[in-house]
Each structure stands twice: as C-alpha cells, then as structure tokens.
Amino acid sequence: MSSVRRFRCYVKSKHVSVINGDELFSEKFSVEDTHSEGDEIKITLTRKWMALSAFISWKLEVYMAIVLFPLILVNYIRNLKFLAPFSTIANIIMFAGFAIILYYIFREPLTFENRVTVGEVKNFPLFFGTVLFALESIGVIMPLENEMKNPKSFMKPFGVLNIAMSIIVTMYATLGFFGYIRFGKDIDGSITLNLPTQENLGIAVQILLAIAIFFTHPIQCYVAIDISWEYISPYFEKYRYKTLWEYVVRTVIILITFALAITIPELDLFISLFGAFCLSGLGLAFPAIIQLCAFWKVMGPTEKKIMLAKNICLILIGTLGLIVGTYTSLRDIIAKFS
C-alpha cells in the first residue's frame, strides 16, 4: 500500500525536516518532485505505508505471494454453509478494527475548521460509484437466502437483510463522517493509511482488516465461481475427474483477482469505476426491469402504478449513475496517470 502525501519541507545539508501541521519530524522518504521558492523547497514525497514493514522488510508483492496459496485453499470450500464460520470470524475482527479506528478518531478533540460542509457536485459520481461498490451484495443475496434454514426470515421488515444493512450503513456513515472531520482533505483512499504506523495499534488495525478481508474473500468469489462453473461444467461431463477441473476453475479465478490486486495501484478510483460501471446496472436497473417483467401480469392496477413509478426511478438512477459515474471515474483515472 502506498500513499502520496504533501508536506512543507526544509532541507539543511542532507537532513530533511518535515512539518505536518504542528508536528516536526524526520523520516526517510523518496523524493518524487521538487521545485524551489527562495530558501524554501517544497517537496512532494512518497512513503510506503506497510503494516508488516515494522517487523519484516519485504516488497509488497512478496507479502501478496505468501497470502496467495492459503487464499486459494480457502476458496476450495464449495458449500456456503461451511463459509459461515469464516464470515463470523471476519466480522469479529472487523469490529475490533473499527473500534481501533474510532479510538484514533476521537482520542483528540475534533474540529470543523477547514472542513467542507458540502462536497463539489463534480465529485458526486465518484461517491455514487464507491457507495454502490461498498454496499452492493446483489450477487450474494439469493444464494444466501437459498442456503438459510428459514429463508422467509431473510426478507421480513425486520429480517436478516434489513437488520444487517442497517448496521452496515450506520457503520459506514459513522466512519466516513468522523473520519473526514478528523483528517480533512488529507484523508487517503483507505482511512487505515492515515493511522500512525509507528504505533502498535496503527499497525494492528491494518493487519486485522487484512485478515478480515482474507476470510471474506471466498464469500465474495462464491457467486462468480458458481456461475462460471455452471457454464463450464457441461464441457467436462465426459471426464472422470470433473471435481478436479472445478478446483482448476476456482484457482484460475483467484489468480485473476490476485493479478488485478497487484496491477491496480489507485484502488479508490477503480472501486468507483467498477461500482458505477457494473453495479449501477446490476444492483439498480436490472432488478427493477426483472420485477416489471415477472410481476406485471399478476398485480392489480394500483400496484402496477406504484411498481412502475418506483422501478422507472430506479432504472433512471442506475442509468445515470452508469453513464456519469463511469465517465467521471475514467476521467480521474486518466488524469491521475497522465
């Protein structure tokens, strides 16, 4: 993980003093760009933020390669019920990580000074895509409901889905709001990158969240693997070792996600891109279209009007998010790398 941060620097001989707010400290940085203004030299610095670098000095790719083999093994679990314990462990770890982040947010008095009350309209599509990516779970909803002992409890007003999403939205909103109040415009794509890596708790939260993501990875890949294998499996019906080929397919899909993780440098921009391009249609527009096609003939006149008005709004929002969000994300990605 890397983060580009800008500070005001003063160079005396070979010693670089970095002023970050009211704090003066000295560290090893790689100089990305410099230009002078009188006796003052402003330097844009790049620092590698890696939690495990406090213990072992390896390249990021080496860490990822070490994690790859156990990640493949945990994705060999074929039954969603057997993945439930991993999800429980991940949730416990995630709550612990959130508690540490909240500790760093509230350990000093918060101030609204230099904080923007309302963001710029041009950045709203990026926000829209990021929110869709964070909250979108349309692919897991139906398989999860089908695997439940009491599927009817899933869609009740106070059922599993609504309670779970209420908790998630509350946590996201809390961390997002107070995280911005704490760090302001200097906040990074992941709030964990703003935590002090010279402190044990700052290192611990990055490691904890990495472990939590590791345990939830099989759940995120479950639907992709299931759909892929459904289309591929007929070609292996005549083979004796059909199950072995399924594991090959699972391995290939994990290797694809691994390759993307290595090659994509600016995660926040690509999250917004995938959220706008893929999930605005999959999570908003298509379900509305499917509901219209499936229930049009069985509903009464009043129910049809309500359903039509609701679904047209969802289709328009999804289409607008797809077009504008994708354009904005691509524009910022091109600007970032040009």
* Biggest sheet character: 5 strands, antiparallel
Q: Strand order of the main beta sheet, please?
A: 3-2-1-5-4
Please compute the radius of gyration using only Cα atoms: 24 Å
Kindly report the average pLDDT value. Answer: 77
Shape: globular
Describe the protein's architecture and organization.
- Its main location: membrane.
- This is Proton-coupled amino acid transporter 4.
- Residues 57-329 form the Amino acid transporter transmembrane domain.
- The protein has 338 residues and is α+β, with helices and mostly antiparallel strands.
- It has three domains: 9-48, no CATH class; 51-263, no CATH class; 266-338.
- The protein contains nine helices and five strands, in the order βββββααααααααα.
- It has a five-stranded antiparallel β-sheet, with no helix packed on it.
- β2 (15-20) and β3 (23-25) form a beta hairpin.
- α2 packs parallel to α5 (160-183) and α8 runs antiparallel to α9 (301-337).
- It is globular.
- The protein starts with a strand and ends with a helix.
